[in-house]
Amino acid sequence: MGVCNQVTFLILNYITSRLVPLLKAIVAPIQVPNILDLTVSFNLLTEHQYGFRKSYSTDEAIFKLTYEVLNALNDKSMVGSIFFDLEKAFDSINHPLLIKKLPYYGIAGKVELLIDSYLSNRYQHVLLKDSRTNSTLVSEWTKVYHGVPQGSVLGPLLFLLYVNDLPRAVPSNITPILFADDTSIIITRPNTSELQEAVSVSLQQLTKWFQANSLSLNFSKT
Q1: Is 78 in contact with 189 (CB distance < 8 Å)?
Q2: CA atoms within 13 Å, Cβ hemisphere of 37
Q3: Rg (CA), the chain
Q4: Which of 84, 85, 93, 115 is nearest to 16 (CA)?
Q5: Least buried of 60, 71, 118, 121, by fewest C-beta within 10 Å?
Q6: Whole-prediction pTM value?
Q7: Where are the beta strands (DSSP E) in 55-161?
Q8: For the purposes of burial, counting CB atoms within 10 Å of the CB of 149, is it exposed (0-12), middle (13-18) or buried (19 or more)?
């Protein structure tokens, strides 16, 4: 009687490793200060974003959250919050949608073409090594249409621009607080029933925004 041992691999999470072409790696650091100056000079980034910005930090984000909660309690109001956790947010950025958003922030012409070129014609493949048999499996190269290069100087800025319109999806009288891909909202209402309704509406509207922007919620951590 023979015995067959089967091993099943379930990959729930992984981090991709990307190599940026030399020319793009050289040009990106040169152009990033220009794009940053543009976002600062014209105040393009939402005031609710605290991540990857000069003079902003987790301290300011925590202070804002604490202030809103204590202010609501001092007013004898009911206060609630939702903390959203996104799955592989940086790897999920939709390139065509990102490029479409840029002109709304005045990023057009040669700068837009440069960013489009920076993201386009990227390929990836998967390599699996089996230490038991000392064998390697390699998939075919596939073109990449999503994600910004993590560890690059341009990637974080592109992500901020991609999620910059998120606060507009939040209903009025609700305070959003963003730190890169971490999103939280603070809701205050005079009574429990109104608070529950506001939480439900906010969750529905932001879920629609995430879906429309190719971003997935991790409901086990939200």
Answers
A1: yes
A2: 6
A3: 21
A4: 93
A5: 121
A6: 0.83
A7: 78-84, 86-87, 123-124, 127-130, 135-138, 142-143
A8: buried
